[in-house]
């Protein structure tokens, strides 16, 4: 891979991907409108990457950044489930239409492959666990619906136009550079941020809901494999660890690192929330030769180090 485009490259996962690609000597372009992403995340690379502030719904901007690109990593999206419940139109505009625009621009620019950041949210709350890719999907939120629509378009572009597309259904990603500042942020970033301040978090529902938390470096690793492996065009692949942790035990772990005692505030369950989520990662192992390299304990420790050093810098 010589030249690639990362949409949403100033965001949490996108900027970690940019860092790794730069380390591997790949030429990187980034398109990001900086709604949730920040330039700080890619500041050390700004001189060497081609950064364009722009929207994935702008076909002209996309065509400009797509010229000469071999692989597109499409990360840009409205990422929050509750935000999509509050504003389903905006979520659809960015996630459904934005993904269609990215695919269309890639087709016109003869891009070899598009790797699409989908989500395990597509499975909804159907009872079978762990989640396998051939199971029924049942989105519970506009966000989940939009990711499923993105996958449908990605497969169509493979079938109709021969554009190689690979959809990665990320489970719950965590690690350095995840923005904790919004109520819509990922739970680990919020809990870490509270803990470094010595504050208690809010837990929605009884806290016994569980997630498959995957460390961001493993997600980056899988993106690179998805960009480079042969004979995987059209594949939809789970990306998690195969293990799960409840929200209660997540806080128990983080509060121990931080030495924060006391009972978190408990409020009603969030509408659109999934209760139980854990991945079967056999397909990722088989098609990508993917193996998660970070245990939950290791990932959490590295993440804690980042949030605690960040708090001393700010
Ligand atoms: P993030 O919010 O940090 O990154 C999203 C990036 O997209 C931001 O930099 C934002 O500014 C940019 N963006 C948003 N709308 C845009 C638009 N219209 N045009 C151009 N750029 C735009 O979130 P993240 O956690 O890094 O998520 C990256 C991708 O991974 C998303 O597609 C998300 O749905 C998916 N995903 C994330 C998780 C997770 O746990 N974090 C899990 C499953 C799937
Ligand atoms: C997250 C991602 C979404 C992704 C999905 C895959 C973010 C912001 N969202 O959504 O993009 O597709 O994983 O599963 O990264 N919680 C609390 N207290 C808080 C915050 C959250 O108890 O302060 C609970 C929530 O109610 C939920 C769990 O923690 O049950 C996880 O929430 P969150 O981190 O927002 O993740 P998802 O909704 O799973």
Mean pLDDT: 96
CATH architecture level-2 label of the largest domain: 3-Layer(aba) Sandwich
Order of helices and strands: EHEEHEHHEHEEHEEEHEEHEHH
Largest beta-sheet details: 7 strands, parallel
Which CATH class of the largest domain?
A: Alpha Beta
Number of strands: 13
Unreliable parts:
none
Which strand order do you get reading across the main beta sheet? 3-2-1-4-5-6-11
CATH topology of the largest domain: Rossmann fold
From the N-terminal CA to the C-terminal CA, the straight-line distance is: 37 Å
Q: Ligands bound here?
A: nicotinamide-adenine-dinucleotide, uridine-diphosphate-N-acetylglucosamine
Helix content percent band: 40-55%
Tags for this entry?
single chain, 314 residues, Rossmann fold, UDP-galactose 4-epimerase, domain 1, 2 domains, seven-stranded parallel β-sheet, two-stranded parallel sheet, 10 helices, 13 strands, globular, binds nicotinamide-adenine-dinucleotide, binds uridine-diphosphate-N-acetylglucosamine
């Amino acid at each position: 891979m010589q030249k690639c485009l990362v949409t949403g490259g100033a965001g949490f996962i996108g900027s970690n991907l940019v860092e790794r690609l730069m380390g591997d000597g790949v030429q990187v372009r980034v398109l990001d409108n900086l709604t949730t992403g920040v330039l700080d995340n890619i500041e050390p690379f700004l001189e060497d990457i081609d950064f364009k502030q722009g929207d994935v719904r702008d076909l002209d901007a996309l065509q400009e950044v797509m010229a000469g690109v071999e692989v597109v990593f499409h990360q840009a999206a409205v990422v929050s489930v509750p935000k999509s419940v509050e504003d389903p139109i905006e979520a659809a505009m960015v996630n459904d239409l934005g993904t269609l625009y990215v695919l269309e621009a890639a087709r016109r620019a003869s891009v070899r492959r598009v790797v699409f950041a989908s989500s395990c949210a597509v499975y909804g709350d159907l009872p079978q666990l762990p989640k396998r890719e051939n199971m029924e999907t049942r989105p519970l939120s506009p966000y989940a619906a939009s990711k499923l629509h993105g996958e449908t378009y990605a497969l169509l572009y493979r079938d109709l136009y021969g554009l190689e597309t690979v959809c990665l259904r990320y489970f719950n990603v965590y690690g350095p550079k995840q923005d904790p500042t919004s109520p819509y942020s990922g739970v680990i970033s919020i809990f870490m941020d509270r803990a470094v301040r010595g504050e208690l978090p809010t837990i929605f529902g009884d806290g016994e809901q569980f997630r498959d938390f995957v460390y961001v470096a493993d997600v980056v690793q899988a993106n690179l494999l998805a960009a480079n492996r042969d004979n995987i065009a059209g594949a939809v692949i789970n990306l998690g660890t195969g293990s799960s942790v409840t929200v209660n035990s997540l806080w128990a772990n983080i509060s121990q690192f931080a030495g924060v005692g006391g009972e978190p505030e408990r409020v009603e369950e969030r509408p659109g929330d999934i209760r139980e989520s854990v991945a079967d990662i056999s397909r990722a192992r088989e098609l990508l030769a993917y193996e998660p390299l970070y245990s939950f304990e290791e990932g959490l420790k590295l993440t804690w180090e980042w949030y605690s050093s960040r708090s001393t810098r700010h």
